[in-house]
């Protein structure tokens, strides 16, 4: 049986195209004005962003299947880095785009992805990170932090003052809060492992909230959920005023008075007390979830 030469040539062309897509390496450097903003966009794969002292952006790594190349644009406003995909690419990847991008210490960084993970380490300027399903991790202490995700997890080592975190179903974890914090979720959990809160607004629908950060001397703290649980760990002797309420859930309190029923006709309960004069106002509210106030 004879093999058609045209068929062989086409097969080799397809193979060569696939190899070209999966074997593109990148190693570029571009000068950047001090303080210029860095905008990065990718669909799938992984992005690692690291701060360094050079007045340059360095991009190195591998471009995955379906990627035509990098579109790097530099103007007076900053640097735009976009991973561009072939118009015939249909999302089937064997090799993913894996990039490490080093940015100047004075440059704010903005990142948008679909399913690409984002790992940021040591960046001290402002961070604005968005993804749909990619995991987002931030290590170090940025100047400011704004993160939005849909189903990917969010992990923050140290949250600066006025941090804003939002997800739909991905978990949110903060190692240490260092000021005021806004965090909202729908079905994912929110966990604050430590630090000091100078005000907080934390909300979920069905996700659980756990906070072990120390309430600071000023700044109101509000935590609210529909069916998720709320667990707040505090120092019993710290001065604060507490306003705790649930409709059909339970309230467990390690210190202070017992909760009271508001009506003999409904299961609604409330607990209000002070541990001294002044201090922050702490409000915990759940419709049907358990609320726990625990002594550290």
Largest sheet: 27 strands, mixed
The number of helical segments is 1
How far the N terminus sits from the C terminus, by CA atoms, comes to 81 Å
Q: Using the alpha-carbon principal axes, give the shape.
A: elongated
Protein model, in words:
The protein has one helix and 27 strands. It has 296 residues and is mainly beta. It folds into two domains: 118 residues, no CATH class; 144 residues, no CATH class. It has a 27-stranded mixed beta sheet that branches. A hairpin with a 2-residue loop joins strand 5 and strand 6. The protein is elongated and about 70 Å long. The N terminus is likely disordered.
Using brief descriptors, characterize the structure shown:
296 residues, mainly beta, 1 helix, 52% strand, disordered N terminus
